[in-house]
Amino acid sequence: MRVVFADLKRQYDSYAPEYEEAALRVLHSGWYILGNELREFEEAFADFMGAKYCVGVGNGQDALILALRALGIGVGDEVIVPSNTYIASVLGITENGATPVFVEPDCFYNMDPTKVEEAITPRTRAILPVHLYGQACQMEAICQIARKHDLPIVEDCAQAHGATFHGTYVGTWGTIGCFSMYPTKPLGALGDGGALLTDDPDLALRLQMLRNYGGVKKYINQIEGRNSRLDELQAAILQIGLRHLDEGNAYRSHIAEAYLRGICNPHIRLPKTRKGSCNVWHIFPILCRTRDHLQAWLLEHEIYTLCHYPIPPHLQECYRRLGYQEGDYPQAETYARQELSLPIYVGMPEEEVTYVIETVNAYPGEANE
Ligand SMILES: *Cc1c(COP(=O)(O)O)cnc(C)c1O
Fold first, then answer.
1. pLDDT for 229 beyond 80
2. Packing angle, helices 232-243 and 245-262, rounded to 10
3. What is the pLDDT of residue 326?
4. Is beta strand 99-103 parallel, antiparallel or unpaired with respect to 168-169?
5. Chain segment 93-140, per-residue pLDDT in tens
6. What pTM was computed for the model?
7. Binning pLDDT at 50, 70 and 90, where does residue 367 land?
8. Widest Cα–Cα separation across the chain
9. What local confidence, expressed as pLDDT, does residue 369 receive?
10. Which atom of ligand 1 lies closest to the CA of 62?
11. Separation of 181 CA from ligand 1 center, angstroms?
12. How far apart are CA 171 and CA 176, in angstroms?
């Protein structure tokens, strides 16, 4: 049996008639940027999440960049970010000329809230937690620290659409929530897309200007903005995706439960979910000391896996100027060496899930370990 890591065609096929109706509606409308589809998606997404405002943008990376820019963060400022995250979270900081200050993860792969306070300096301007792999961070503790130090929180929710902490959606705990609608994400477009949530009307207006050359009225530029808009076609597709978000999250959770129940191999550590944190399982991360060997072994059995992520941001070549070296963030580095992501996606057939469980359980470990 061949098990691919993800199959977007299967997800597309599940909702094909709806997608096609929406796409044709936009194609026939003659209006492709900043129109009714975007307005309707923004309203629906804000409503769903329980936020006052939603601003659609071109992608998740731009959401992060513009969120920090709207807060006035730039050169000389520091932003606290987990040491184990996708590079985009950190690029959101450095694109604005600000400096990332890394905080090590806890055993749930998320920013360890007990280590946040010691990372705060007089230059700190924001805290940027990432709800990695689909699991909500300990937002109560992070919010408490932010309030105490009067710092805004920018949440990176790119992997966690629909995840909650103590029943409240991620993306609404902080000052601004940033989402990616990249096709594989829990709420994915059929192309690039992104969105921001906030309850602050001034920030919402600033974000609307920043995504559109710095103005909301054509040819009136109040601030220096850029071009980053969620187009009508993607906005129409995302309205459908939003209607099926809970269903998709439930589908992956069902697979995750099967993995958690079924996988039992002394060479492998299964992911843990924090009490009170909802996990929408964008990724199913396991740990294995002989990760590369396990990955090759699974591939021999035609199971395709990925590592999220093999090199932590502080050791990436692009950040050599920051002067970090191996050993600076040992927890992130351990995860980078040991993490392996098993296939988990909407439309994944049950027999493939069973095959993954059986094959992972049969993994004998590396002979000379
Ligand atoms: C995908 C992702 C992003 C970036 O989103 P894009 O839409 O690809 O630009 C940012 N942060 C995290 C954690 C992500 O997984």
1. yes
2. 60
3. 97
4. unpaired
5. 999 999 999 999 999 999 999 999 999 999 999 999 999 999 999 999
6. 0.97
7. confident
8. 68
9. 58
10. 9
11. 8
12. 7
Which two structure tokens, joined as six digits, stand for 71?
A: 């807060």
Q: Which position has the token pair 């299967």?
A: 10
> In a mutational test of the pocket of ligand 1, which residue from 68, 135, 159 has the highest number of ligand atoms less than 8 Å from its CB?
159
Confidence of residue 368 (pLDDT cuts 50, 70, 90): low
Structure-block tokens of residue 154: 């920018």
Is the N-terminal amide bond of 309 cis, ω within 30° of 0? Answer: yes
Burial classification of residue 105, based on how many CB atoms lie within 10 Å of its CB (0-12 exposed, 13-18 middle, 19 or more buried): buried
Report residue 179 as tokens: 């989402």
Q: What is the DSSP letter of 327?
A: T
SS3 category, 349: coil
Residue type, 273: T
* Residue 211 per-residue DSSP state: T
Pair of tokens at residue 365? 């470990």
Ligand 1 first shell, C-beta below 6 A: 59-61, 85-86, 88-89, 130, 156, 158-159, 180, 182, 192, 194
